[in-house]
């Protein structure tokens, strides 16, 4: 079986490599020539654990190819996945220009029946727009080649993307064409090792499922951040409360970790987009508006604690920051809370020395530029700093040498934005620790 994956980013590259790994012939397509050249030379454009190994292995075996030529890639392919970005437009709605450009190009270049499956996160009705764009392009050619559209939203998490793709909780397929359903069933057979994991539904429901899933997860996080902030005020311990509620399977113990707010390329944009969709239909998603508001505020919580300790004016002060990426195990800086915290500290007159195990190049080139001093290692960031701010919970930050930390910092003072440090233990070592609602 042969497929094309158009858009070779976090989702397209991982999906393409994983499909190739189970024996499918895959061509990953991108308009970014440099990215394609890098991949052909075994250089990964993103950091994702386990990705390099399966990309290189499958490229060498010939099952995985990289190209900038969409027309060639879809020749003989049963499915063309659209996996390009859907960034927020100015009004918060998902910008579909990349998705529809690909649909148009497929319509221009297809030569046989093909299933065009949208993997990008797209609002309800996009399936119809994709169908329209392909049909339009075919009409312009005077062609009536048959095709089908499908919605196949992706649920992988960055930092665990390969694992998530190879062992999905579920595979959602929105489809309204029997032939297309059969093709998708065959394609996903290798991922169904234990039991039936495909959920078939109509296309709008599949599109909505993706937004509902991300919105629910974002809701859990904002809810817990709100509760943790209250815990702090009333003298309760958010860690204990988290354990206490998480043990109820109806609530579950995942995604209820308070912190400095959710970031990343998806929760912020998808929550905005679904709110916008609802507005277009005259409906107010009040819960999700609150989720977004709480998250916007939560990104300021750590800097506010710094100011509550030192005062509003931080002129001449230096802060060490451990972690820049929006979560561990990724170099992705999109909507990373670190950016908001850095801006706030700088606006109050402070300077920031930062260290992140993998995201510093990305931060330097695309997001933070020269807003911070980038350090060689975690300890280097502490030299002459007035306090340490833990922003991303990379494993290597969990058990540092407290003796060294205490010697390098000017004050034994820590602002722990992810609740990874034991406040009581550190107190015995002479550290003062502020965190998100735990004792
Ligand atoms: N990043 C993630 O963890 C997840 C993302 N998604 C969704 O998947 C979609 C893609 O997200 P990412 O992979 O993060 O985006 P990305 O920005 O990493 O990658 C998109 C790629 O598409 C390419 N592209 C743009 N226009 C093109 C065209 N006309 N032809 C060929 N290539 C083109 C870009 O050059 C880029 O390499 C988004 O809708 C996102 O919401 C869904 C689940 C997880
Ligand atoms: O649509 C997407 O792109 C993806 O969005 C999220 O994945 P991702 O953004 O990669 O990472 P998450 O692990 O979900 O973390 C998102 C943010 O929430 C924060 N978070 C997560 C969990 C938690 O308990 N507390 C918390 O603050 C993380 O620090 C991070 O900033 C979803 O988990 C994926 O299922 C989905 O496919």
From TrEMBL:
Which InterPro entries does the UniProt entry name for this protein? Answer: 6-PGluconate_DH-like_C_sf (IPR008927), NAD(P)-bd_dom_sf (IPR036291), UDP-Glc/GDP-Man (IPR017476), UDP-Glc/GDP-Man_DH_C (IPR014027), UDP-Glc/GDP-Man_DH_C_sf (IPR036220), UDP-Glc/GDP-Man_DH_dimer (IPR014026), UDP-Glc/GDP-Man_DH_N (IPR001732), UDPglc_DH_bac (IPR028357)
Q: Which GO terms describe its biological process?
A: polysaccharide biosynthetic process; UDP-glucuronate biosynthetic process
The residues that hold NAD(+) are 30, 35, 86, 121, 158, 269, 334
The residues annotated as the active site are 266
**The enzyme's E.C. designation:** 1.1.1.22
Going by the UniProt record, its keywords in alphabetical order are: NAD, Oxidoreductase
Carries keyword Oxidoreductase?
A: yes
Any single Pfam family the record assigns to this protein: UDPG_MGDP_dh_N
UniProt function note: Catalyzes the conversion of UDP-glucose into UDP-glucuronate, one of the precursors of teichuronic acid.
Q: What is this protein called?
A: UDP-glucose 6-dehydrogenase
Q: Which organism is it from?
A: Algoriphagus machipongonensis
